[in-house]
Structure formats: C-alpha cells, structure tokens
Design goal:
By secondary structure, the protein is α+β, with helices and mostly antiparallel strands. Helices cover 57% and strands 16% of the residues. The protein folds into three domains: 150 residues, 2-Layer Sandwich (Beta-Lactamase); 85 residues, Orthogonal Bundle (Helix Hairpins), CATH 1.10.287; 178 residues, Histidine kinase-like ATPase, C-terminal domain (Heat Shock Protein 90). It has 13 helices and 13 strands. The two termini are 66 Å apart. The structure holds adenosine-5'-diphosphate and magnesium ion. The site of magnesium ion has 5 residues, from helix 8.
C-alpha cells in the first residue's frame, strides 16, 4: 500500500469508504423493504382470518360461496377450515383438495395460533396463518394463506437493481475521487518539476504556489522561503570567496612589487632590509587573514570545539584590559573596567578572543576612554565595550558584523573587516547575541549578551589565572594578539 502513489491510495481509500456505505445502505434498504412487505402480508392474513373466523363461528358453511374480502383479493389469499383429523371442512374456491396443514403443525395450530413464514404449498411459496376455532364444541383449525410470489419478485427486483446500480455508483464515485485527487495533487507535481530544474545557477527561481490558502500552498510558500535563504547563503558564500581572494591579492601584489624592485635596482643593504621588513609585514597580514578565515569557516561549520566552563566576567574583563594596558598607555588612552560579580558559561579562550577584537577596535577605530562594563539583564549577562570616539560610520553600522565590512578610514589601517564577524560567530556559538548599542550620544558601544549562569564561589581568581596562562599559549589567540 505504501508503495502506491498518493493519488491511487486516496482513490482506494475513498472507494473503500463509498463501497462500505453503499453495501451497508443496500443491505438496510433490502431488509427494511422485506420487513415491511412481510408486515403488510401478515396484517392482511390477520384481517382475512378474522373475517373467515366470524363466518365459521356463525356456522355458515358458505366459505366457498363467500366473496373474498377486498383486502384478501389484492394478495390472492385463500382460506381452509380443517378438523382435528386434518379433514377439509371448507375452503376457498379453486383450492386443491389437499389439507394445508398436517401432522405436528396441525396439532400445534389446535393449541394456539401459528404463523408459518414460508411453506411450499399449491405449487409455490406461501405464507400461512393458522388459528384454532371451537364453534359449537368442534375443534377446528382455520388456515389462511397468501402467495409470496409478488413479495419475492419485488425483493428480487430490488436486489438486482442494487447489484447493478451499487457497483456502477461505486465506479463513478471512485472515478470522481481519482480526478479530484489528481487535481489536488497537480500543484505538487508542478512544484516538483520546477524544483527539479532549480540548480545552483538558477537559485533565484521559485516554486509555483497555488493561490488557494491550503496545505500545499503553505508548503510551497515555506519551500520558497527556504530557497530564498539558500540563495542568500550561496550569494554570501560567493561574495565571501570573492572578498577573501581580493584581500589575499593585495598583500601578495605588494610582496611581488617589493621583490621586483629589490631585484631590478641596485640597492643598499638598508634598502634591502626595509624591503624585507615590508615583505615580512605583508606575510604577517596574510597569515592573520588566513587564520581569521579558517576560524570563521570552522565556526560556521560548528567545528570549533567549545570548552565551556563557568567564568567570572569581572576577572575576564580585567584580564583583557591588562593585555592592552601597554598599548593604551602608549596611545595616551585609558581602559576602565566596571563590573559586578557575574558568571557566564563560556569557552574562556574564545570569549577572550572576542573581547580582544572589540578592545582592539576601540583602540584603533575609536577614541578616548575605553569602558568595559557588565550587567545582569533579564535575557542574560550583558557585556559592553564602549569608547568615546565618533562611533561607527553610517555606512558601516548596519553591516558591521558581516564579513569584510570595514569603514573607509579602516581600509588603510590594515584590518580586513573580519574582527566583528568573528565576534559575532563566537557569541553565536555560545547561544548569545551581539549588537551595537543605540542609546548613546556618541562613541561606539558594542553589546554582547550571553546566557547567564548562577554566580561562582569566590575561588575563581586563581583558577582563572592559571587557565588564562594556558590560553595565551593557544595559537589562535596569539595570532589575534598579533593582529591587533
Ligand atoms: N570602536 C569603533 N569605533 C568606530 N568604528 C568601529 C569601531 N569598531 C569597529 N568599527 C568599524 O567597524 C568596521 C569593522 O570592524 P572589524 O570587523 O573589526 O574590521 P577591521 O577592524 O578589520 O576594520 C571597522 O572597519 C570600523 O569602520
Ligand atoms: Mg577589528
């Protein structure tokens, strides 16, 4: 059954239901008619017997002459009076000289009235009603009967009509069911054909959605939304690859130029050293870029294993601030940390990397004091990294967390625009959110929201000092440090 197409299955189920209804209905109809015919027959037999009994009781021997009652006439009924030996005392004209009841049946009829639903008499099937009569101390039995021919004929006609009409109705209903199922499933087939034609090159195509607001239309709309998401993802992937190769080309071209110049012209040792230094810087940029791209790709694939542990946010912010202290001092900037004791469940290395990217941005793109703050909010722990600079460029703010987004000023400064994308991916891997705070007059304020965990006991500082020591040795973190 499961292997059949839906259309055939629907039709079969429909046909089975209709078949059951028709069979049940036919059965009921037949029995209803049979019962009502029998009832009518019995009523007329009873009326006839009452009439004849009255005549017999009066001692009138004229049963032969008595005209049949009109009701009896319609059914062609007949009557016979028997004595206790089965001898015919009287009977309707035209009956054979043959008792209608004999033996045990006659004896039972002497005791009380007896209805014989079907008996073979007088060359056909008849229905008989026998009642005991005792006129003038005689023991007689009155038997009235009616042929069943017309009743049987009526039922036989109905039976053959049902046997012909039922299957015909069933066939017609099944055909209609088959057509309706086909019509209902046609949009599915249209969607399937179109879906089969949608390839990577034709991702902008959509499935035809029927105008009705039914399950199939909703399925089509949902699939189209999925196609839109796939299209966006593929587009993003393509532009990502294009951007990445563009980013790789620039430092490589610079290296190439430096090398060409160094080889072509006679150059002093200092000039050669400067060229090599420049080449070294470009190599650093390239490897930083490669690290960032690799990390993003692995975060995308969910391949970065997160070693989540309960972290004290205040300690974490102090650690990050400490790492930038020298650079901040050199630039004449300050880094403030203001956080109550709060805990989050996170991978220390990755979360620190995200914060390092943000503080690095605040130092590079922002100005003034950098504030690292944390607070407990309804939807989790919020960590803010804010500065007092000009804030995000208008053109950048909306897409700041997308790959390769960077402001005009930032273009010359060497960043590839992956820092915030990495922050977003790390925070997403922790089931958190990242956003630009909107409620500040000026300066940038990036907000990370992470799911909260119950606060930690106060022994965390030492442990974390140790873990932080480990994390500095981690390759990717060192790489990030190198970049900033
Ligand atoms: N603190 C900030 N103040 C102003 N602009 C910022 C700040 N942080 C980030 N930006 C803007 O967002 C862009 C993207 O940042 P990011 O993804 O870290 O890339 P990158 O630092 O490599 O340029 C930056 O180029 C800059 O224009
Ligand atoms: Mg950056």
């Amino acid at each position: 059954m499961k292997r059949l197409p839906i259309r055939a299955r629907l039709t079969l189920a429909f046909a089975a239901a209709i078949g059951a209804v028709l069979a049940g209905g036919g059965f009921l109809l037949y029995h209803h008619l049979a019962n009502s015919l029998d009832r009518t027959l019995d009523q007329s037999l009873r009326a006839r017997s009452a009439g004849v009994a009255a005549i017999v009781r009066q001692g009138d021997p004229g049963l032969r002459e008595a005209p049949p009652a009109p009701v009896a006439d319609a059914t062609g009924s007949f009557a016979q009076v028997l004595d206790s030996h089965g001898t015919i005392r009287d009977q309707s004209p035209g009956l054979r000289q043959q008792p209608l009841l004999t033996g045990p049946l006659l004896r039972r009829a002497q005791a009380k009235s007896l209805l014989i639903a079907r008996a073979h008499r007088l060359g056909g099937d008849v229905r008989l009603l026998a009642i005991p009569l005792q006129p003038r101390n005689q023991k007689l039995v009155l038997v009235v009967g009616a042929p069943l021919r017309s009743r049987d004929q009526t039922l036989a006609n109905l039976r053959s009509e049902l046997l012909v009409g039922g299957p015909a109705a069933l066939l017609l209903a099944s055909l209609i069911g088959y057509l309706v199922a086909g019509a209902a499933l046609r949009p599915v087939e249209r969607m399937r054909t179109r879906a089969a034609a949608i390839t990577e090159q034709h991702l902008s195509e959509r499935l035809p959605v029927p105008s009705a607001n039914d399950e199939i239309a909703r399925l089509g709309a949902t699939l189209n939304q999925m196609l839109a998401r796939v299209e966006r993802a593929v587009k993003r992937e393509r532009s990502f690859v294009a951007d990445a190769s563009h980013e790789l080309r620039a430092p490589l071209a610079l290296v190439r130029t430096e090398v060409d110049l160094a080889l072509d012209l006679p150059r002093s040792a200092e000039e050669l050293q400067a060229a090599l230094r420049s080449i070294g810087e470009e190599a650093d940029r390239l490897s930083q870029l490669a690290d960032d791209l690799l990390l993003l790709a692995r975060l995308d694939e969910g391949e970065v294993p997160l070693r989540k542990e309960p972290l004290e946010v205040r300690d974490l912010l102090h650690d990050v601030a400490e790492r930038f202290r020298r650079r901040a001092d050199d630039d004449g900037r300050t880094i403030d940390v203001d956080a109550p004791r709060l805990a989050v469940e996170a991978d220390r290395v990755r979360l620190e990397q995200a914060l390092v990217n943000l503080v690095g941005n605040a130092l590079r793109h922002g100005a003034g004091t950098i504030r690292l703050t944390a607070s407990s909010e309804v939807d989790g722990v919020e960590i803010h990294v804010a500065d007092e600079g000009a804030g995000f460029d208008n053109g950048v703010a909306d897409t700041a967390f997308e790959r390769f987004t960077r402001g005009d000023l930032a273009r010359s400064s060497g960043g590839a625009g992956l820092g915030l994308a990495i922050v977003k991916a790390i925070v997403a891997a922790h089931n958190g959110r990242v956003a630009l705070s909107t409620d500040i007059a000026h300066g940038a304020d990036v907000v990370l929201t992470l799911p909260a965990t119950p606060a930690l006991p106060d022994l965390t500082r030492d442990q974390h000092g140790e873990i932080a020591g480990d994390s500095v040795a981690d390759g990717s973190l060192v790489a990030t440090k190198g970049k900033e």
